[in-house]
Structure formats: structure tokens, C-alpha cells
Amino acid sequence: MGKIKFAIACISPDLKPAEVRDDQDFENLKWFISRRLAIRIYVVNKHLCTLLATYRRLMEQFGHLFARHEPQKTIDVITLTETCLDSIDEALAFMNKSELNLLQDEWRLTIDSLNETLASFVKFDNWTPPRSPDPADTARRSMGEDPREDEPTPESLLGQPHLHPAMSHCRISVIAAVKLSRLFVAQLLKISQDTENFQMVPDLSTRELEKFRTMTSTIATSMKNVVSNLSEEPDEARDGIWKQ
Fold first, then answer.
1. What whole-number distance in Å separates Cα of residue 96 and Cα of residue 30?
2. Distance from the CA of 188 to the CA of which of 16, 127, 138, 220 falls in 20 to 30 A?
3. How far apart (Å, rounded) are the C-alpha atoms in residues 80 and 76?
């Protein structure tokens, strides 16, 4: 296993994508691919070492008949074996993917991230600040009266503004920006799947491939930061924006 790690380090050195400009003719040995494959091989290596170490320990403690005397240990070994096989299958599936397939995977992750961002903002948009207790209501309760008798009905609240106008415009803009970003990435993914009319240039370097990847991931990160900054305001600032 040590030799495997050493070999991986040799074919996938610790470089920055922007520095790898001249591997366009390396095909499957491009750093863009080998780095990602290395991560999966490391995972396989970890699971395999855990499986072998566990099996050796059980053999030393219980001998070849440990399955008969320790059935739970057998289940543990089977679970570790399945985990190891799953990681191997994932690595093999990765080896069969093209550069375009890898970019498409990244675009799908970007769409998922934008969906989560949109859901997070909608949840924030529907949030209503808790109502502060009215001193008059407190006094009426102390006198045995029911303060709910004078509360407005749901019908009387219809039509009342919930958001400050500036916040309302901001809300519309943010939702539109996230949806347009998602539409752009979704269309990019759809076009790339039309193999009859779309073909990817095969001689792109790692630096160029990384630009394709970061182009969409940066959009998702930016949208997430915008929503995060809007929805994580201090209570004092939030109370000034949101209106009862």
C-alpha cells in the first residue's frame, strides 16, 4: 500500500491547477484527471487497509473459526468488505469517465447547490419575527381579562405590508438571480449532453479544464454568500428590516 501511495504521488503531484498549462497531450494522465483519481484510490487504500487489519486481528485472536464463535465479528467483516468493494466500484466508474463527464458532474453539483441556496432564501423570506409581548396585554392578563379579544383577525391583516419596500425589491432580485444562475447551468448541462451537435475539444490543459469547472462553481458560491449575508443579519438589524 505504501508503494501505491508513492506511485500516486508521482503521477499526481501537489500542484495548483493554474500552474498546469502543458499537459494537454497527456490524455488520461492529465493532472485534472489524475488528481481526482488519486483521491478515490486513497479512499480505496484506506478501506482495504482497514479490512485487512481487522481480519488479521480476528485471526490472531480467534483463529480460522472466529466466524463460528464470534458471529458479530463476521458481520463487521462483511460490512467492511462491502464498503471496500463500493469504493473500488466508484474508482472504476471514475476511470471510465471522460473529461466532459467530469465537468457535467461538477455542473450537477452546482445545480444542487443553487437549489439549496434558493430553498434557504425562501425559508428565510417566509420567516416572521416573534411578536414582542405587549405591556397592555400583560396588564390585562393580570386583571383576568383575555387580551386576544382585541387582537386583529386574519382577515383584517390581509393586505398589510410584511416587508420594507427596499427589502421586497432585494428579495425579488435575489430569487431572480439564483433562478437565472440555475437556468444557465442547467442549459449548459443540457447542451453538453447533445453529443450529435456538441463535441468537446480533446486537447485542453488542466488549467483550461479547471476554468470550465470554476466558472459555474463560482456562481454557486457567490449566490450562497449573498443569501448568507442577507439571512444572517443580527437580530437588531433584522428587526429593522422586517415589519410586523
1. 14
2. 16
3. 6
| Cβ within 8 Å of residue 96, ≥6 positions away | none
Of 163, 167, 155, the residue nearest 128 (C-alpha): 163
160: left (phi over 0), alpha (psi -120 to 50) or beta: beta
CA–CA separation, 15 and 18 (whole Å):
8
End-to-end CA distance of the chain: 63
The residue extents of the domains of the chain are: 25-96, 97-127+164-232
Per-residue pLDDT tens digits of the chain, which is 244 residues long: 666 666 666 666 666 767 777 777 777 778 788 888 888 888 998 899 899 888 888 777 777 666 666 677 778 888 999 999 999 999 999 988 988 999 999 999 999 999 999 998 888 877 655 555 555 555 556 665 554 554 544 444 444 445 555 567 778 888 899 999 999 999 999 998 988 888 888 888 888 888 888 888 899 999 999 888 877 654 444 444 444 3
Rounded to an integer, what is the distance from CA 233 to the centroid of its chain?
Answer: 23
